[in-house]
Every structure is written in structure tokens, then in C-alpha cells.
Amino acid sequence: MGNTILGQSEWIIMEKLWEQQPRTIMQLFHSLEVEPGWSKSTVNTLLGRMVDKGIIYYEDGGKARQYYPRLRREDAAVAETENLLSRVYKGSVSMMMSTLVKKRDFTREEIQELYDILEGLEGGHDGK
How many C-alpha atoms does 54 have within 13 Å on its Cβ side? Predict the structure, then answer.
């Protein structure tokens, strides 16, 4: 499950389930009918596919199935990041960071966060 890559539509549904769980098909449909404008049958089809893939699961809850995420947001983010790093940057973290730094203005807070992350890594490797 740790290497599951989500499609764009799957991300949208997962965001709703990570936000609040469980949710019924009708709750999901009502939260998705305006933006991105999905029909109930579209939501139902996507939920079925996601259950089949093992990304989500449901429990029968009285009148309606209750849907839950099986995948944690952090695990999905790691899988997506590793996929991007491998596919686009051939595994090079420095190439990815160089691209980001050249194309984006970082706030002081973001720069400090990056320093803190790198210092934490350095400490974990005995400074060598």
C-alpha cells in the first residue's frame, strides 16, 4: 500500500475522506457535485474502483455504506513524491530542489523550515 499512486480523481475523493470519515456516497456526492461537478454515478463508479484497488473500504452502516480511507495522507504523499523524484528527476533530490529554488520565491519561514529539515538530517548522520 505504501507505493500506491493516486489518480487525480482519487486524490479528490481521498481529500474528502481524510477531511472527515466516514462518509456515505451521498455525503461525498453532495460535496463534489458543484466542484468538480460530478454526478452521483461518477462518484459511485470511482468509489467502486477505489475499493477494488484497496485504497478505501466501506462498512455497512444502516441505510448506507460508510466509506473510509485505507491509505494515510502521509503515505500517499510519500509515494507521490518518490514517483515524481524517480520519474522526473531520475532520483536526484538536489536536481529537484535546484529546480524549485530557481522557479519559486520562498518566504523567510519556508527557508527556515528547509534549514531545520537539513540540520535534522545532518544530526541523524553524526555530522558526516
Answer: 5
8 A C-beta contact, residue 66 and residue 47: no
CA atoms of 85 and 126, how far apart (whole Å): 26
Contact 42, 57 (CB under 8 A): no
CA 63 to chain centre: 29
Residues 108, 109, 114, 115, CA torsion sign: positive
Task: Specify the pTM.
Answer: 0.77
- CATH topology for 1-91 is Arc Repressor Mutant, subunit A (1.10.10)
24, 66 contact by CB (below 8 A) = yes
57 and 51 Cβ atoms separated by less than 8 Å = yes
- What are the tens digits of pLDDT across the range 20-70? 999 999 999 999 999 999 999 999 999 999 999 999 999 997 889 999 999
Phi, psi of 67 (to 5 degrees): -95, 140
